[in-house]
């Protein structure tokens, strides 16, 4: 390994260490919308650096390291990417509102929120699960629309499904969720039962590209969180069943990179209307099937 490559590699790990330290010291820092020209996010720069290292692209590694240094310096001064502005005002001076934890309405909801917290804290159950804020949004959308039938692609350990079922328990609806991995399906089934939601959730095991063919009834909400390249196939198979006014929600629209074919399908169809939310994290798209 050349001296220059050794230096770049060492610099990369130094930058990664700085990134980790920054994240540990700012675990609850809420994202603040920033005016001005857009720039790469801190997470995006880390991703660029990792990709450059895997590809042994020394020029790209050096560029990413330099951008990380600049990003860290600007964040330390309270400045967003691509702009100059003073630090955020002190507490009590027009700060952005901060999200508060959900308050249980009754004992049943308290029990469900406790199970959700257990899953989130258990390292063995975090596989491919959505974030806490993503889950709250799913619950709000399902309950606000009075959803009766939700179809989920990608159960994992049941975290997102419990958020949906929390709403469906109130609306009288049902969740049908697809999972290809038997071990994760088993954990999910246990979590649904612990939450007292087992009766309103049906786990369908197997390859969802095949098992979705069994759906025949109208669907209020589709939630896509399985294999990302498969989104377009799920959409093509299930869109005819989505009722007018129904929603297609897709996770991981920012990270990992969304399938261009799926993005084109939900943004160029005049019968659909798509927006993007919570893009500071993995990102989600919400698509309305127009009436």
Average pLDDT works out at 80
Biggest β-sheet strands, sense, barrel: 7 strands, mixed
Q: What is the number of helices?
A: 10
What is the CATH superfamily classification of the largest domain? Vaccinia Virus protein VP39
Content of β-strand: 15-25%
Q: What is the CATH fold-level name of the largest domain? A: Rossmann fold
Cα shape? globular
**What would CATH call the architecture of the largest domain?**
3-Layer(aba) Sandwich
Task: Summarize the amount of helix as a percent range.
Answer: 40-55%
CATH class descriptor name of the largest domain: Alpha Beta
| Terminus-to-terminus distance | 62 Å
**Helix and strand pattern:** HHHHHEHEHEHEHEHEE
Q: In order across it, which strands form the biggest sheet?
A: 3-2-1-4-5-7-6
What's the count of strands?
7
What is the total number of structural domains? Answer: 2
Structure class: alpha/beta
Tell me the Rg in angstroms: 21 Å
Unreliably modeled segments: 27-38, 75-87
């Amino acid at each position: 390994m050349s001296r220059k490559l050794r230096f770049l590699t060492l610099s990369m790990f130094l930058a990664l260490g700085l990134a980790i330290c920054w994240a540990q010291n700012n675990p609850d820092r809420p994202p603040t919308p920033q005016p001005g020209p857009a720039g790469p996010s801190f997470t995006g720069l880390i991703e660029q650096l990792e990709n450059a290292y895997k590809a042994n692209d020394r020029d790209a590694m050096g560029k990413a390291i330099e951008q990380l240094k600049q990003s860290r310096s600007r964040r330390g001064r309270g400045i967003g990417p691509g702009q100059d502005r003073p630090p955020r005002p002190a507490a009590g001076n027009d700060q952005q509102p901060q999200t508060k934890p959900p308050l249980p309405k009754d004992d049943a909801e308290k029990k469900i929120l406790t199970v959700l917290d257990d899953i989130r804290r258990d390292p063995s159950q975090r596989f491919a699960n959505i974030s806490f804020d993503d889950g709250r949004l799913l619950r709000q959308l399902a309950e606000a629309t009075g959803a009766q039938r939700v179809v989920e692609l990608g159960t994992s350990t049941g975290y997102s499904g419990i958020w949906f079922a929390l709403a469906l328990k109130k609306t009288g609806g049902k969740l049908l969720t697809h999972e290809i991995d038997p071990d994760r399906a088993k954990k999910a089934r246990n979590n649904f039962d612990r939450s007292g939601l087992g009766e309103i959730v049906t786990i369908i095991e197997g390859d969802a590209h095949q098992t979705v063919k069994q759906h025949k009834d109208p669907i209020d909400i589709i939630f896509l969180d399985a294999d990302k390249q498969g989104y377009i196939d799920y959409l093509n198979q299930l869109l005819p069943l989505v009722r007018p006014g129904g929603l297609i929600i897709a996770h991981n629209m920012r990270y990992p990179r969304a399938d261009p074919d799926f993005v084109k399908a939900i943004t160029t169809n005049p019968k659909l209307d798509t927006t993007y939310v919570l893009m500071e994290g993995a990102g989600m798209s919400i698509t309305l099937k127009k009436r």
